[in-house]
Amino acid sequence: MQVRAKKFLGQHFLTDKNIAHKIVKALQTKEGIVLNVLEVGPGMGVLTDFMVTDQSISLSVIDIDRESIIYLEKKYPLLGDRIISGDFLNLAFEKFVEPGKDFAIIGNFPYNISSQILFKVLDNKEKVSQVVGMFQKEVAERIVAKAGTKAYGILSVLMQADYEIEYLFTVNPGVFNPPPKVKSAVISALRNTTNVYDGANENLFREIVKAAFNQRRKTLRNSLRKYLTPAIQEEKMFDLRAERLSVNDFVWLTKLITKAIDEKK
Q1: How does strand 103-108 pair with strand 13-14?
Q2: pTM for this predicted structure
Q3: Residue 1 falls within a domain, yes or no?
Q4: pLDDT tens digit string along 136-193?
């Protein structure tokens, strides 16, 4: 039995087992501790094969494609109810993992929802300890981009604020069925052990980052106009564009704006 790749689901099945093994090996496991892992979009199980019998991993998989689910249920009967039929973007994490426990996410992510997957991860960062995944190369480059580069944007800042990001390797189209029209890349994201916010309001931080980059051609003085108060409007950082600010700069700016708002009350 084979699963037919469906264009509307953005499916491109990885066929190279060596690459699949490299992806799985990028998971950070600890000796003596079982890592809860959720694989997103397993397709026909090219990654699953390397995790299902690994004693250091407690594996669950989720796929929106019913054809894949039927295939996986037949191929991996021991997974039982840990084969989840549904949309990852609608998955209630609190039902998937016990309170106080976290898990890793892995997958050859569908390109059409890869950014949405990461935003869901960010919304649940206290539960998601790490992410290892295949992305369109352009998206992967945005995630790891540094301040001052064209690729640097909302996803760069928000992901780097909460995770240590590593670009692992590039993957050519020929190892997929069907081959995508673009190159792919694998990245690893390991949740930060230190809190970069240092007391800054995280919701306001995200709001400021998004507002700044949504008008990235404008200076912060214009894109963040609604946050300016007389007490801070002469701050020189507002003369810069969003792409010039590091994660720490955005944290500092969030604190500055919070203080100004509090003093105005």
Answers
A1: unpaired
A2: 0.93
A3: no
A4: 999 999 999 999 999 999 999 999 999 999 999 999 999 999 999 999 999 999 999 8
Q: Looking at residue 49, what DSSP letter applies?
A: H
Extract the tokens encoding 236: 């020189």
The verdict on residue 162 lying in a domain is: yes
Separation between Cα atoms, residue 10 and residue 88, nearest integer Å? 14
On whether the CB atoms of residues 52 and 79 are closer than 8 A, the answer is: yes
Name the residue range of residue 224's domain: 202-264
Rounded Cα distance between 51 and 107, Å, is 12
User: Cis (ω within 30 of 0) for the bond into 42?
Assistant: no
Q: How far apart are CA 121 and CA 117, in angstroms?
A: 6
| 53/145 same-domain check | yes
Average of pLDDT values for 197-220? 95
Amino acid at 111: Y
> CB-based contacts of 63: which residues, under 8 Å, 6+ apart?
40, 41, 42, 43, 69, 72, 84, 85
Boundary (domain end) residue, out of 132, 160, 191: 191
Mean pLDDT confidence for 75-100: 93
Q: What is the CATH number of the domain that holds 138?
A: 3.40.50.150
Residue 71 shares a structural domain with residue 160: yes
CB 76 within 8 A of CB 54: no
Long-range contacts: 238-244, Cβ < 8 Å, 24+?
A: 241/216, 241/217, 242/209, 242/212, 242/213, 242/216, 243/147, 243/148, 243/149, 243/150, 243/152, 243/153, 243/213, 243/216, 244/147, 244/148
